[in-house]
Amino acid sequence: MCWWHDGTGISSAHTPSQGEIREQGHRALAQGEAARALRILEVSRELAESLDDRRGLALVMHDLGEATLLLHATQDVSHAGDYYRAAYSIALSEGDRHLQADSLTGLGYVAHLNADQEAAQSYYDEALGLYRELNVSLNERRGQASNLTNLGSIFEAQGQVADARHAYTQALTLDKQIEDRDAIAHDLLNIARVLDHAGQEAEAMPFYHRAYRAYRAYRAFRALGKDDDTLTVLRRLVSLAQAHHEESAASDYEAELNDLVHSQSKLPSR
Question: What CA–CA distance (Å, rounded) separates 162 from 165?
């Protein structure tokens, strides 16, 4: 039995497959170790190229784009775009429409980070169209919801309140269908925020309330610790209730806020 080790932290009793190496890269990404993930994924890329595994190469190029974006504070964001374009080109030649949509989403996010909102919207729209055509699985609906949220953020930044709210509401509908609790809470907060910033405070309040309840229930369901989103929503609910002279509601929200702050202060620091 021989052990294989290449200096990236990958170690095995046998020479791992391209898919196994890529999965190790995914685990590094999930653990927030983007630099290590990049090193592992580059090994996966080389193996895919040596095997002429076109779909495997496209998948790992997409992963490399994601890993590069996680390091965008210290690396050139356009490099991530190069990976996503390579993934899209291969996916197009292979007829893999799902990967085409995923790659277009990545390209949209790169454009968004580069403040090219017109290009970002174009990529998101194209990806959304593909996901809708592929609407046969949970992953496609998740992809639709993600791109609708991305489009909503562009509309919001441009002051297009109705369009932003519509996009966020469509995302909420899809996230409810796949029961993505975390995304549902964020969708509700997005709707509340866009209404609030547009001066529609009374209409925003019920969405803040629903977002707060969704966050609290999700955090309890997952037994998670500190939660800045819940605190942010609660603080805004307190101020809105006070501004609209809903003293009883303000008092209730403030009591819950104090309880939450107190409970989180007891959590061990990481």
Answer: 5
**Count of beta carbons in the 10 Å neighbourhood of residue 41:** 29
Q: Residue 83 contacts by C-beta under 8 Å, 6 or more apart in sequence? A: 61, 62, 64, 65, 68, 106
The whole-angstrom separation of Cα 105 and Cα 122 is 10
At 47-61, the pLDDT tens digits run 888 888 898 999 999
* pTM (whole model) above 0.85: no
105 vs 100: CA distance, rounded Å? 9
- List the structure tokens of 23: 């999965």
Check residue 201 and give its pLDDT.
Answer: 92
Residues 143 and 110: their CA atoms lie apart, in Å, by 16
Q: CB burial class (10 A; 0-12, 13-18, 19+) of residue 113?
A: middle
CB atoms within 10 A of CB 180: 19
Q: Which residue has the tokens 């895919």?
A: 48
Residues 6+ away with beta carbon under 8 Å from 24: 10, 16, 40
Structure tokens at 144: 């639709």
∠ CA 27-29-30, nearest 5°, is 65
Let me know: does 124 contact 152? Beta carbons within 8 Å: no
